[in-house]
Design goal:
Blueprint lengths: L4 E7 L7 H14 L4 E6 L5 H5 L4 E3 L5 H11 L6 E6 L4 H10 L2 H8 L1 E8 L4 H10 L7 E7 L14 E2 L5 E3 L4 H7 L9 H4 L5 H36 L2
Parallel strand pairs: 1-4, 1-5, 2-3, 2-4, 5-6, 6-8
Antiparallel strand pairs: 6-7
């Protein structure tokens, strides 16, 4: 497979673990780097991602066949646009059941699209079991564990080994309470963080810039891992 674009699915079967924050950061990472990106909000009825990034993120639904076809057709489009899904916990099982039924991973593979799940794990049995169930489905994609520092001690992360085409993992650092209040105002774009930082104290400005540098480095390393895995696969196919 020669990768043309990447579909990022930010997921967890648990609520309030930071899925929307990761989806926002990932969407704005693409925008900051001047790339085309589409973001889909599967968090009804909250629609948080759409509120944070109006005009960039749009609500989507898989409640009926029309919505399912509209979404999955966009996800496998052969172009140079990255796509980000904020997958609400209420549709977690339905989304991946549908993905298996339509061979979503196989279709992305045929079209030069790399599917990447960014999975925010928690130490409970439901989260661990759901992660394990996704591993065989995404052998030709990437199942990437995400450690969200705000959730506390990450010793349990050994229960979520990277799987698929890359051994990458992602770590999301925590912001101070004062900065969290700023970035949680809707709308807010990290791609325009320099403008937002103008109203902050110098120490807060420095913290926000350092935070984004760390997060963007995590995403760059993830992308590099996916691209290198694709290159290695192509070279092996020639011999």
């Amino acid at each position: 497979m020669s990768i043309r674009n990447i579909v990022y699915i930010v997921a967890s079967p648990r609520p309030r673990v930071g899925k929307t924050l990761v989806a926002r950061l990932l969407t704005d990472f693409q925008r900051h780097n001047g790339r085309a990106v589409e973001a889909f909000d599967l968090n009804a009825p909250d629609a948080a991602l759409s509120d944070y990034l109006p005009g960039v993120a749009e609500p989507a639904s898989i409640a009926d066949v029309k919505g399912q076809m509209a979404l999955f057709d966009r996800l496998v489009t052969e172009d140079d646009t990255a796509r980000v899904i904020d997958l609400g916990h209420t549709v977690f099982e339905a989304f991946f059941r549908l993905a298996a039924e339509i061979d979503f991973v196989g279709e992305t593979h045929r079209r030069g699209v790399a599917p990447v799940i960014l999975y925010i794990g928690t130490p409970d049995g439901t989260s661990v079991e759901a992660y394990a169930a996704l591993r065989p489905l995404f052998r030709n994609g990437a199942l990437v564990p995400v450690t969200n520092e705000i959730l506390g001690n990450a010793q349990y992360r050994t229960k979520f080994p990277p799987s698929g085409m890359t051994a990458a993992s992602v770590h999301i650092p925590v912001l101070s309470p004062a900065l969290r209040r700023v970035v949680e105002r809707r709308p807010f774009s990290f791609a325009g963080a320099e403008h937002a930082a103008q109203g902050l104290l110098p120490d807060e400005q420095a913290e926000l810039r350092q935070y984004l540098r760390r997060v963007n480095l995590e995403f760059r390393e993830l992308e590099l891992g996916v691209l290198l895995a694709d290159l290695q696969s192509a070279l092996q196919a020639q011999f």
